[in-house]
Structure formats: structure tokens, C-alpha cells
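Issue 218. Parser rejects a valid record. Input:
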Amino acid sequence: MVKSANVDPSFWKGRRVLLTGHTGFKGAWAAAWLCKMGAEVTGLSLPPEGEFSLYGSLAGKLALNSQLIDIRDQERLKEVVQEANPEIVLHMAAQALVRRSYREPISTFETNVMGTINLLQALSELTELGAALIVTSDKVYLNNEDGRAFRETDPLGGDDPYSSSKAACEIATASFAKSFFATSDARIATARAGNVIGGGDFSEDRLIPDIWRAAREGKTVTLRYPEATRPWQHVLESVSGYLVYLQALAGDEGAEMPKALNFGPADGEVITVGRIAQQVQNAFGIEGDWGLVNKKQPPEKSFLALDASLAEQTLGWRTKWNGDETLTKTVDWYQAFSDNEDIHALTLSQIEDYET
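Output the parser choked on:
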């Protein structure tokens, strides 16, 4: 464990915060943390998908104003933004699944690009906004798979609809910041985080949820690209980065902050899908090896890593939990969920463990 910049509860207490995507996996963790610190949170999102969701397990115990709308609905979005009149905005609402983006490319671009533009347009009319952080992805970079970790100055790009929609979101955000916030006190920035894992992710076509479902149903785990590497980190690592970044953007030196930052694991924590899968299988008590998906799959990049040194230099931010700690926290959460334990208490307990 290394020393890193801390989320400051005193900054968030009583602060008016607009959190988009609060019903999603990462958004629900952010909502729980913000509510724990006493922020006045307005959540804006679609209803959670599927039979299970972290938000569904927490909803009755989170003190927030939940607005279930589509960010593509420009007029309704504007109404909610004006009613909330946020001082801080954390924008995570998105179509976040690569494989779904192949099936639904139009709605992916509509949500990730136009939905963000709708939000930025609504924010441009506020007078008390201090900072807004637009969360994109580690996949926004033009990836030629040369084995090098991406830096914030690398060119943007993307072969699949999800990646390219997020790269386009980066460009649109930078344009809006220069065009409509140049004379404003509000600071607009983007954040690019590595692959996050942690308790409460039940999304389709994601590694840990797929393994949990296989364990629950007694099926064999199947992998698409077991040799692919990803910058795995616990969800609380990325959320902490976003919150610390927003604290800095809204502070006295906010104008001097970078307009985009990577948040990823330390060097050496980029590991293969197959290794993660085997460790999680063992933890869930799944015997035997995983299998390979035997039908043609949409292409995916085999190597992906982020250089988060700029976040360390400017914020003092570094990941706190190594790979083993991350997997332990993740497995503990799913096992508690399967045993019908108090998920709200467990989630807050893991947040407290991270804080200390």
C-alpha cells in the first residue's frame, strides 16, 4: 500500500453534486461514497438493468434525489440540471459495453456523444458551477498495440463503436470547454480510467460478473481473449481519483490543473484476463480450468495500459490496493451478496477500509 492523495469529506459535506449514471456499477459506488460524506446528491440515470444491481441493493439507504431519465432527452435533462443547480458534476452516464456497441452503434454514439453534449449545454447556463468531470475510458487512445502505456498527450482514436464514441466525447468536451466555458469560473475536464472491478458489477460480457454467474449456475467459465492484458483496478481507485480531481479543479488552483488525466494501476499491475479468471475461479470454488469461446468474436485489442504518472504528479494520486487486495475485496463482496448479507453495510465498510 502506498501513500496517496485523499478524498476530503469536509469538501463534499453539504456540497450540491450532480452525479449522472448513479444506477450503474461505478456510479452506485460513487453515490454511496458521496452520500456517506454528506453531499447533497442528485442522481440522473436510466433505471438499472438486469435482475441484480448494486444500486438496487443500496437504493433504499442512499440519501439522494434520484431522477430516472435518459440523457438523450435534452429538455428533461435541462430541467433536472436547473432544478439541481449543482456546484460539482460527475458525469458517468454512458453506454459502457464494447460488445453491445457493435450491436447498437447508433444508440452508443447518441448516448456517449450527444448525451454528453446535452449535459454540457445545460451546464453552460449555470452560474454556481465550480467543476465538472466527464468520465470517458482507457480505450480513448489510438491503440496500435506497441506495448507502451498511454499518456494523456497520445492521439485519440478507437476501432470499435464504444472506443470511438468515447474518443469523440473527449473532443466534444474539449470543444465545449473552450467555446462556452472560457470566461466561466467553472472548470471542465475529462478522466480516463483503467478497467475497474469490484463488488456489485452485474453487467453482461464482463469478466468478474461472468465468473460469478458461472459459479452460481454451475457452468464452465468461458473466455474470449485470455491472453489480453488490461489495467485492472478496484472501482474505488477510479472513484477516488475522480473525487480528488474534482476537489482540485474546484480549488484555488483549478485553472492550472490538466484538462485530462489517466487513472490506472501502478506499473506491474497490468495482468492477463486468464490470470484474473483463474484467481477468481479459485476464490469462488470453481474447479477445473476455464474454456475458450468457440465462435467468432468481435475484435478486441490484446494490450492496454495507462500511464497515470501525471495524476500522481498533479494530485498525489496513486492506487492503494494491489491486485491481490483488489480481488479479495471483490470476491468478499460477491460472497456476501450470495449469502444475503447487508450489502449497504458491506459497501460502506469497504469504502471505509479504502479511506484508511
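Fixed in the parser; the record now loads. The mean pLDDT is 91.
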